[in-house]
Amino acid sequence: MTRQAQRKNVVDPGLDQELLLAKSDTGAISKGVYLFGKKNMTIDLNARLRFGFLIHDVSRLRRIVIDRALKPVGITRSQWWVLAFLSRRDGMTQTALAQDLDLTKVAIGGLIDRMETAGFVERRADSSDGRARRVFLTKAGVKFVTTIRENVDRMEAEILARVSELDIQRAAKTLLSIKETLIDIIGADDDSDDGEKNDNLAE
């Protein structure tokens, strides 16, 4: 069976390599070869499928580990996410928080209610839009963020202990590129998808 070689540039320009995709005369891709100078390394093109599963598995396992780190301080992961977002952008609207956390407006409302009762956040009316409510960290919330970060940072360091700083930077660059592509696919306006957002995380 005759085969054709189709060359494509690898995304990372920092790696001096090309991906050689071997195509059969039926057009089906059977396998690929990375070219490192004079050395060829056969790869399984099912790696793209496994890559998606790997992202899912890492995310799921990381949630389990972070939940364990948060348990001693008495906070849920969804509450920590709210505090973490507000520590970067204090005064976010409830709508923006709902979008970033992939929660419905009803779910984020209940979550903020519980956190406001606990004294970690407070709602204020938007000065330019009377219909909008903005969420701010209280002094207790700011202090609590510092405590939580100490626990989470220790766990993050343990999670990444076997990964070099260079590999972390490369992985972050790759994931950022994928994230931007996904945002482009989804589109900027996803208000119509509220019904599909998660209510289960708002604990």
Decide which structural class fits the backbone: alpha+beta
Judging from the principal axes of the Cα atoms, what is the shape?
globular
Strand content: 15-25%
Across the major sheet, the strand order is: 1-2-3-4
Radius of gyration: 23 Å
Report the total helices.
6
Helix content: 40-55%
Straight-line distance between termini: 59 Å
State mean pLDDT (0 to 100 scale): 77
Instruction: Give the number of DSSP strands.
Output: 7
Order of helices and strands: EEEEHHEHHEEHH
The residue ranges in which pLDDT falls below 50 over 5 or more consecutive positions are 1-39, 191-196
**Major beta sheet summary:** 4 strands, antiparallel
Describe the structure.
- There is one protein chain.
- With 203 residues, this protein is of the alpha+beta class.
- The chain has six helices and seven strands.
- It has helices at 47-70, 77-88, 94-101, 105-117, 139-159, 165-186, and strands spanning 3-9, 18-24, 29-36, 39-43, 92-93, 121-125, 133-137.
- The strands form two sheets. It has a four-stranded antiparallel beta sheet, with no helix packed on it. A three-stranded antiparallel beta sheet has the order 5-7-6.
- A hairpin with an 8-residue loop joins β1 and β2 (18-24).
- α2 packs across α5 (139-159) and α3 packs across α4.
- The longest helix has 24 residues, at 47-70.
- The chain starts with a strand and ends in a 17-residue tail after the last helix.
- Mean pLDDT is 77; it is low at 1-39 and 191-196.
